[in-house]
Specification:
Blueprint (H helix, E strand, L loop, with lengths): L14 H34 L11 H35 L10 E2 L24 E2 L7 E6 L4 E3 L7 E7 L3 E4 L2 E7 L5 E11 L6 E9 L2 E2 L6 E4 L8 E9 L9 E8 L4 E12 L1
Antiparallel strand pairs: 1-2, 3-5, 3-14, 4-14, 6-7, 7-13, 8-12, 8-14, 9-10, 9-11, 9-13
Helix pairs in contact: 1-2
């Protein structure tokens, strides 16, 4: 996990953007705690010899000592969870209430038909009053991996297929399945989960970058770092949450992609990503 960073123009953020950043920081803390608990679970598996590729290496006294250490850490995490809950409740008190549901807006009826003067009867059918609904919901997009057991090569973008879409500010085109178009000037939250395993020989560290086109990296969005060697023994989930502030110099849409920075490929057994407008 890398440390989150605030946008360079943080002093110019609106109240709503500041509240959004605080909520995003709480989500990142929750994600960090989940990584810590996962590490403690793997420590117990290593001691008990149930981790893949290991054998029992501890006596009963060692198991009890490790169990005591894990218990102390879980208690500390529980106390942290209470603090995060209190922090979130305070932030939600200052969040604006959601807008009321949109009401249908009547469409004006076309002018009445002009009947010939010699026609004794009035115009026959009354004009129907259709309705149209104005959309006040924010845009969101759900994507899944283009296929399972997909080989993801270094310096390549991960391809997707859509699973659900709402609104017009987030677009995905099947002709360019590796890129998601965002509306510059708005803020978005991205959350992805990848079940991956490393391709032998794997070594060193790997990074999953959230790349923006045409301006390169999102300056205020940290990438996800992981160990390639940790993924050799089997599939592991990689989960990441980030807040995006797309910017373009010449206008137009900003394109979002996930890019692998590693020495060896990854096998992506399953991939899911949600992008939502804040």
């Amino acid at each position: 996990m890398s440390m989150p960073s605030f946008p360079p123009n943080g002093a110019d953020m609106t109240r709503e953007e500041a509240l959004t950043m605080i909520i995003a920081s709480i989500a990142m803390e929750e994600l960090a705690l989940s990584h810590i608990l996962n590490a403690e679970g793997e420590k117990l598996q290593y001691i008990l010899g149930t981790l893949h590729g290991t054998s029992p290496c501890a006596c009963p006294q060692d198991v009890l000592a490790v169990n005591k250490s894990v218990t102390a850490l879980v208690e500390a995490v529980t106390q942290n969870q209470m603090l995060l809950k209190s922090k979130l409740e305070k932030v939600l008190e200052f969040c604006p209430l959601p807008p009321p549901p949109c009401k249908p807006e009547p469409v004006p009826c076309p002018p009445p038909c002009s009947c010939p003067s010699q026609h004794p009867d009035p115009c026959p059918a009354p004009c129907p009053v259709p309705h149209k609904t104005q959309s006040c919901e924010k845009s969101s997009l759900r994507l899944v991996g283009q296929r399972e057991q997909m080989i993801w090569n270094p310096d390549c973008r991960l391809p997707w297929r859509t699973s659900g879409c709402f609104g017009k500010d987030i677009c995905w085109d099947r002709r360019v399945p590796t890129r998601i178009q965002l509306n510059p000037g708005k803020a978005y939250v991205i959350q992805y989960t990848l079940n991956v395993r490393a391709m032998c020989p794997a070594k060193g560290a790997g990074t999953i970058c959230i790349r923006q086109s045409p301006c390169g990296m999102f300056a205020d969005t940290p990438p996800l770092h992981f160990s390639m060697e940790h993924l050799i023994h089997g599939s592991q989930p990689l989960h990441h949450i980030a807040v995006l502030h797309p910017r373009t110099n010449g206008g137009g849409a900003a394109e979002l992609s996930l890019v692998l920075d590693a020495e060896t490929p990854l096998c992506v057994e399953r991939a899911e990503m949600d992008v939502a407008e804040l």
